[in-house]
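User: Show me a protein chain along with its predicted structure.
Assistant: Here is one chain, sequence first, then structure tokens.
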Amino acid sequence: MKKSAAILVAVPVLLGAGYFIVPKANPERFLLTGSSTIAPILQLVAEDLHAADPGLVIDVETGGSSRGIQDAQAGQCDVGMASRDLKPEEKAGLDARLIAYDGVALIVNRENPIAGLDHQQVIDIYTGVIGDWKELGAGEGEIHVVNKAEGRATLTVFLEHFKLKSSAIQADAVIGDNAQGVRMVAGNPDAIAYVSIGEALSAVERGEAIRLIALDGIEPTKLSVADGSYPLRRNLYLLFPGAPDASGERILAHLASARGREILTQLGFTPTDIAE
């Protein structure tokens, strides 16, 4: 998306499915779209940049990694956000910058006593082979399976790890972003879902009625994601349609700074070097 020499970014305000800006007089819109996992990171980056320079205006919208990739390819945004690796056919024309690592955590209601699940148990739950928590020694109750919608990177990571086809999933509910998964599990003692570890850890800190459970005996923590021992780890990317412009470089520089790493850690993500 072509821009004039002036650099503009907008402080986003959460509204509906994305972060939208209260417009200034004739602002130039610098738009990021895609992963709901990455959006909170860029929200805080935008607020910092705006505080340092009120003339900067950034708009952050969610919609899933597939949207971010497609928008960046089509020039419909300035930066796409993707919380999965790109497929070979998706890489053309995009400059992908790795900004952090995240894990995908299985979450249950806080009242559910189960400590963890192994690889096969997760498959059996999500394909309907196991349908009641009593089969896992976690009390009686029909398991309420929460799955992610098509186009969501978390779904792609989940399916690839467990070698499942989307058509094999027997879901009771299908959700979009991570926050929806947290709310659904917090409100249903028999529910199970999978969401970003960063989002889940933040939800626990806010007092939401959920728990993160172990996968194959490994707890989903910042440390297990950082050292690679947690099996469901994924990469978080910013996608530039060509070389980053001045505004893009400012975003990358902020993420690479001490403050940027503080933001990533605060939100439960694992910082990594910004790719050159």
